[in-house]
């Protein structure tokens, strides 16, 4: 009998972390690798937020806090949800965790029983299915496509729901595609959910403020108020506020669910970092004027990457509405051979050869549940993006 839990056989390590680690190893060995795998802004955390953290340290706010967040941060989250989303929550309905991932994990652990199903639109963030499996549930993948701009249709959602369905995990703008659902598109999905009162909605709104051009972000409970009592609205400060390492995520939902999540957290990590919580208070309550400035940079980078990748014969690269990813299709490149003799059998082979032969690290599409594609993160410098895209162009041109 194995010493390790049988549950581990149901999951795999994060592919995005694996790509980032491999790229770092090659760089350490002296290779000029450009990493486009990590979903992390290259901006520094705004100074006022860093100052708030220093002030918290100087004030001795370095002790244990309540398990799922200090009152000041919960109040700031309630204010944010009302200000930005028109959602009215009390602090008793709010949970703060060590990053957005823990919030999602706590909710799944607190609610799933063996055989419970969770509908996950694909392409999806790599951790969704594995977190469901760890919690004892069964992921049900609802496949979107390039033809629908990687967005789930109402008919697909209807088909995926069964009497065993407990959750729909909804992410807009999306990691890995950057696709964002308009209010009309989201209303069509919530109309389906209204016909299935046993299905709850877990939103991942982490890229809320990274919305471009004419796209306007909206979240399910905002679009369909009748879903309020069975929605867990999840968010965090990692992406928009360039606070990935501070590890603060949060959610708001029914009191009973939040209490169950608190119980899970009390027996795992306990409270998030006290200093990070005070920094997050400042992030949510403080000036927000840097957000559109950062977004101008992201739009410029997006347009650069989409333009250069769209020049490649056999590659289709849709323009995303938000986040900082593009998700090109390489369907026409499958079956070709690299100069080193590697056959591009699938998108994983493409990504591996691109790293080994062209020193560009991307994440292959199968990791996100939709092939043949790959994900590029454009949350890095213009110079690095130009060089990387030129290398991708040369690599693809060399395929025979």
UniProtKB/TrEMBL annotation:
GO function terms (MF aspect): L-aspartate:2-oxoglutarate aminotransferase activity; pyridoxal phosphate binding
Enzyme Commission number(s) from the entry: 2.6.1.-
Catalytic reaction list: L-aspartate + 2-oxoglutarate = oxaloacetate + L-glutamate
Residues annotated as domain Aminotransferase class I/classII large: 32-392
One of the GO BP terms on file: amino acid metabolic process
Keyword Transferase: yes
Top-level lineage group: Bacteria
Needed cofactors: pyridoxal 5'-phosphate
Key words of the record: Aminotransferase, Pyridoxal phosphate, Transferase
InterPro entries linked to this entry: Aminotransferase_I/II_large (IPR004839), AspAT/PAT-like (IPR050596), NHTrfase_class1_PyrdxlP-BS (IPR004838), PyrdxlP-dep_Trfase (IPR015424), PyrdxlP-dep_Trfase_major (IPR015421), PyrdxlP-dep_Trfase_small (IPR015422)
PANTHER family membership: ASPARTATE AMINOTRANSFERASE (PTHR46383)
Assembly notes: Homodimer.
Family label: Belongs to the class-I pyridoxal-phosphate-dependent aminotransferase family.
Name listed for the protein in its UniProt record: Aminotransferase
